[in-house]
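Narrative of activities, Objective 1.

The group set out to show that a structural description can be obtained from nothing but a protein's sequence at a throughput compatible with the screening campaign. Below is one input-output pair from the validation batch, recorded exactly as produced.
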Amino acid sequence: MFGLAIHGGAGTLPRAEAGEGALLQYRAGLSEALEAGFAVLRAGGSSLDAVTRAVVVLEDNPLFNAGRGAVFTADGRNELDAAIMDGRTLGAGAVCGVTHVKNPVELARAVMEQSDYVMLAGAGAEEFALSRGIALVPREYFHTPERWKQLERIRSGDAGLSALTISHVGTVGAVALDGGGRLAAATSTGGMTGKRYGRIGDSPLIGAGTYADDRSCAVSATGHGEMFIRAAVAHDICSRMRFGGRTLEKAVDEVVLGELPALRGEGGVIAIDARGNIVMEFNSEGMFRASRRAGEEAHIAIYRPD
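Output recorded for this entry:
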């Protein structure tokens, strides 16, 4: 058994603002990333390669808040974060606050596989990228009109909008189980529109937004990062399975529908366990998500029911 699940953000594109054309574009983007990652697994590739490939496709798509489509900070910059984790070895790599890295998930993987560290930040991370041949791009690469408009709305004092508005959170991620029984997780984000310079959310923090352990499951999260950090969401789900005997579905439900709402945390997770069970749960209006398991058709959804 092998399988893959991906997400493109929770709470984004409320139904009231969603047009049929936009929804079709998002579904197409999810489908492309899912197929790219699943093709790796179908060919006998590793879960690490599958999640990396799926996230790279999402980072290259300006519809999603990662890589090319990253949102702007309050001072008009793009600061990117990413993490990846190997469930077999518990090896992990992460980067945060990078501004010139085309695909942060690739740099996070390089940190995991080619350094003695887990996390590198800012200029230090980009210097490491140069030393490893990771592609850097000018800051203009990340400047998309739609993301700039979102920042301008916040700067103008648009009622109801702030750096914590869930509609401007759109992290991407992937979790996978390969044919060898190995789990992996990866997450990448541009953070929150209008965030303060230097703010870091849960995505690159191992145990908060990203975690994988072959003894339990692999998790990638999306939503209000501060609350996901406080609840150590990804690790909590894995621990409830490993030490509490919960099923994947039960563990996810307890955290996403119980612990997070108690902290007023909005968002969701995708998760896969060592048996190939997949859960994609959220407490927001919607979550861009897709999954596929060996011998089954792809499932792509945004809202509930969908």
